[in-house]
Amino acid sequence: MRNLFLASLAYACLAVPGALAQQDDRLADVQARMDAPVDTTLPPVETLTCDQMTAEMMVAGQRMNSQLDPNFAANAQALQDQVQNGRAPARGTEAAAAEANRQRVNTIGGQVADATAGIDLQRMMALSDRFAAERCPTPQ
């Protein structure tokens, strides 16, 4: 999951040449958060119950949701629709279509990076992995 997240942000860094420095900063920020030392004031993930993991992930999810750009859903849906429909650009407009796709991916990657600010991504991934390994029930 970590590699997928970082790969999507790395791809977004290639999106718009003028925004490359900003994307490098975002990617570096996310990487720094992933590499940050473990917060020793929190109980180790390995000691948490399913209920405790659920609560901690829900709080992080609520924080991410509150920080998420309101246009994120529309941007992601537009990209998904385009991919699923497999619409090929008209002849001669391939470069413009490719640039539009890169800009859309850049926007989505930036929105995800901004929404996860202040969230311990390393801990969230560890919680998610342990939650799955323990086969904890998903809240309804």
3D structure, described in words:
- This protein has 140 residues and is mostly helical.
- It has one domain.
- 68% of the residues lie in helices and 0% in strands.
- Helix 1 (2-13) runs antiparallel to helix 2, helix 1 crosses helix 5 and helix 4 packs antiparallel against helix 5 (94-115).
- The longest helix is centred in the last third of the chain and has 22 residues, at 94-115.
- It is elongated.
- 14% of the residues are buried.
- The model is unreliable at 9-19 (pLDDT under 50).
Could you outline the blueprint of secondary structure elements for this entry?
Layout: H1 2-13, H2 20-35, H3 50-67, H4 72-85, H5 94-115, H6 121-133
Task: From the alpha carbons, calculate the radius of gyration and give it in angstroms.
Answer: 18 Å
Largest sheet features: none
Percent range of helical residues: 55-70%
User: Total number of helical segments?
Assistant: 6
The coarse silhouette is: elongated
N→C terminal distance: 23 Å
Integer average pLDDT: 80
- DSSP strand (E) fraction? under 5%
Give the H and E element order: HHHHHH
Features:
single chain, 140 residues, mainly alpha, 6 helices, 68% helix
Summarize, please:
This protein has 140 residues and is mainly α. The chain has six helices and no strands. It has one domain (2-133).
